Amino acid sequence: MPGLPESSVKSPFPPPPAHPARLILTLSLAAIVGLGIGRFAYALVLPDMRDSLGWSYSAAGFMNTINAAGYLAGALAASRLIKRFGWAAAVRGGTLASLASLAICALSGNFIVLSIARLIIGFGAAAGFIAGGALAARIGLSRPERADFLLSLFYAGPGIGILASGLIAPFTLQFFGPGSWWIVWWVLTALATVMTVPLFLTEIDGHAALMEPGAARFAVAPVLVYLTAYFLFGAGYIAYMTFMIAYVRDGGGGAAAQAAFWSLIGLSAFATPWVWRSVLGLDRGGLSTTIILGVNAIGAGLPIFGHSPLLLAISALVFGVAFFAVVGSTTAFVRFNYPPAAWPSAIAAMTISFGIGQTLGPIVVGAITDALGSLSYALNVSAAMLALGAILAAFQGKLTKP
Q: Is the separation of the CB atoms in 192 and 33 below 8 Å?
């Protein structure tokens, strides 16, 4: 503007952050707390809770079903929450809800109370994850040459939570003995509390200037087979993540074996961006999803052949390196096949399909296990659903952008 020094002219957009990687890692704390600890650490505590509280496998599976239902509700409500309260409030509020619910899990063994806590954790995790992911994508655009790497830092969050809880929960249970599941929840609550501190000390709103998406039509029919495949992934992966620690323990695996298995899943997630980079770039309908989901099915199916430590380690690594990438493949599918204005509605459809699958998966597989009397059947069903999903995704052709 004439008459004003250049430094005094304000841009309508926030300046790019000086340390984008640090800011995105801070945002990833929402995913660490809500998903890595809030959702997935339940599998580590489940065997002791089931023994102490007298649950059936159906009841144990229901706890992850209600958590997934909360996640689905949170995903559907996220855009309204963001619009009303802002991006930073959605990230922090969702993380606080997850944190408070972790503490409730330590306070009561009542089935209804625990169910409500798991529901709230799911809702809060979805709000924090969706808002945090959108902010991470916006920040990544400030460094186009590093955008993919920067965004991968956010999606590594759940893997960090899985790794941290895997190194802590089994040994806490071993130290305090049977019936100490509630102590594990307190320890995880303390860990999550420490992790949330940077999220509240870091300025976020200045980087939340996101453009509102335009309106565009989204038709279900052309991608029905792909949505079905994603539904099967949701049902299959969550069954594996719910019951595998119980399977390891039933095979004689102690605290060290359980910690090693769970930590390998978390560690393998860090390799995801490098392992699948070229596959995610395949603009050929559902091909990338077929490849990644097929590998995921192989990882889930390996424990069917026994409790060998080597076999279980390979299963954890193969499963872990693929299951975070499946979500990335659906994002790539949307990006390749739809104009930007249709991305929100397309991703919402994917989220709903996935959410329904992971809501039904644990309780259905738990009921099958109760009826047939062995966790091996749960793993068979889990691997079969993932394999069927991979096959169906192969039939999804490339769409023509309007």
A: yes
240 vs 167: CA distance, rounded Å = 19
Question: Along the 402 residues of the chain, how does pLDDT read in single tens digits?
Answer: 344 344 444 444 455 555 788 888 899 899 899 999 998 999 899 999 999 999 998 888 899 889 989 998 988 888 788 888 888 888 999 999 999 999 999 999 999 999 999 999 999 998 888 888 778 777 776 776 666 667 677 877 888 899 999 999 999 999 999 999 999 999 999 999 999 999 988 887 655 544 454 456 678 889 999 999 999 999 998 888 888 888 898 888 889 999 999 999 989 888 887 788 788 778 788 999 999 999 999 999 999 888 899 999 999 999 999 988 888 788 778 878 888 677 767 877 888 888 899 888 888 888 888 888 777 887 888 899 999 999 999 999 998 765
Contacts of 324 (CB under 8 A, 6+ apart): 155, 158, 159, 269, 272
Q: What are the distances in angstroms from CA 70 to CA 28, 158, 200, 352, 361?
A: 20, 17, 24, 12, 14
What is the C-alpha separation between 131 and 30, in angstroms, rounded? 9
In the chain, how many H helices and how many E strands? 16, 0
**What span, in angstroms and rounded, lies between the C-alpha atoms of 168 and 156?**
19
The label of the residue with tokens 């920040």 reads 139
Are residues 132 and 31 in contact, defined by beta-carbon separation less than 8 angstroms? yes
Measured CA to CA, the distance from residue 257 to residue 102 in angstroms comes to 25
Angle between helices 343-372 and 224-250 (to 10 degrees): 40
Q: What is the pTM of this model?
A: 0.81
Structure tokens at 220: 């279900």
Instruction: Judge whether 106 and 180 are in contact, CB under 8 Å.
Output: no
Instruction: Specify whether the backbone of 252 is left (phi greater than 0), alpha (psi in -120 to 50) or beta.
Output: left
- Residue written as token pair 């910690």: 259
